[in-house]
Design goal:
This protein is an alpha/beta fold. 47% of the residues lie in helices and 9% in strands. Bound molecules: iron/sulfur cluster. InterPro entries: Rossmann-like_a/b/a_fold, TilS/TtcA_N, tRNA_Cyd_32_2_STrfase, tRNA_thiolation_TtcA_Ctu1. Catalyzes the ATP-dependent 2-thiolation of cytidine in position 32 of tRNA, to form 2-thiocytidine (s(2)C32). The sulfur atoms are provided by the cysteine/cysteine desulfurase (IscS) system.
Length: 302
């Protein structure tokens, strides 16, 4: 049989793939895409190398389960050796199902630690009823996890933030914080002791949600405390969803823009030396003295 005949014979078979077969192919594509995205981010940002000890922060949400799953897959195939250690912080929220993560991690043979710290009571004491608790809660959680990493010598802390988290944080900072800043894929903590990595930085939230549903990860909801997501973050998310519906691919374009910054086309003097362009410099500014330039604005009358 000629190659052309083979192709013709093959064609109807492919076309009439059963729904189960189609679902399997889609599932393979999804897994491959996520692994490629994670691998690419790890490579682009030098996230993990030979001998690294990676602490994988596991909250029990879809993102962190997906991150762990993919890192385990990459670890098994990687030519470099690195360690993965899952860590969950039990914050003592009411009804936290504390058996779920240990059971899951034991079944997968993943080394893990469950830290216990009652940040829930601290947050309850400090945030007035009806106000969002997430910001303080996350700060306390980060503190506990970073401290543990430092004590135990983990030189990488992997967090499960994805591309959509990064873009929404960018808009929150832009709209409400007056600065151009998102969440970097790799970050050195302020005290220089921890390197935080976000291996899902290139992954779409939709893909992660589909992957988590397919793998039936035993998800623990992050609202056991009764707190609501911050209103501003919700608004930004809604805006991004509407954009994406109307102009598919817009979130990806924004993310790419964040990785393709042109400081000379913005206005931050700390990033680009505008004053020296064209030979201008400090002495020339003397002619502005007396015009109120550089002085603090006068307080307006009440
Ligand atoms: S929903 Fe509750 S547990 Fe989750 S970050 Fe907010 S305050 Fe913390």
């Amino acid at each position: 049989m000629s190659p052309m005949q083979e192709t013709l014979v093959d064609f109807p078979t492919r076309k009439s793939a059963s729904p189960a077969e189609k679902a399997r192919l889609e599932s393979n594509k999804l897994a491959k895409r996520l692994r490629r995205n994670v691998g690419q981010a790890i490579m682009d940002y030098g996230m993990i190398g030979e001998g690294d000890r990676v602490m994988v922060c596991l909250s029990g949400g879809k993102d962190s389960y997906t991150m762990l799953d993919i890192l385990l897959h990459l670890q098994a195939k990687a030519p470099v050796r690195f360690e993965l250690h899952a860590v969950n912080l039990d914050q003592k929220q009411p009804d936290f199902p504390e058996h779920i993560l240990p059971e899951y991690l034991k079944a997968k043979g993943v080394p893990y630690t469950i830290l216990e710290q009652d940040t829930y009571s601290v947050v309850k004491r400090n945030i007035p009823e009806g106000k969002t608790m997430c910001s303080l809660c996350s700060r306390l959680r980060r503190g506990a996890l970073y401290t543990f990493a430092k004590q135990e010598g983990y030189n990488r802390i992997a967090l499960g933030h994805h591309r959509d988290d990064i873009v929404s944080t960018f808009f929150l900072n832009l709209f409400f914080g007056g600065k151009l800043a998102g969440m970097p894929p790799k970050l050195l903590s302020d005290d220089g002791a921890n390197v935080v990595i976000r291996p899902l930085a290139y992954c779409r939230e939709d893909d992660i949600a589909a992957y988590a549903a397919e793998r039936a990860f035993p998800i623990i909801p992050c609202n056991l405390c009764g707190s609501q997501e911050q209103l501003q973050r919700k608004q930004v998310r809604r805006m991004m969803t509407e954009w994406e519906r109307e102009w598919p691919g817009r979130t990806e374009t924004i993310f790419r823009a964040m990785c393709n910054v042109a400081p000379s086309q913005l206005g931050d003097r700390a990033l680009f030396d505008f004053a020296s362009l064209g030979g201008g410099g400090a002495p020339a500014a003397s002619w502005l003295v007396g015009e109120g330039v550089g002085e603090a604005p006068a307080a307006s009358a009440a």
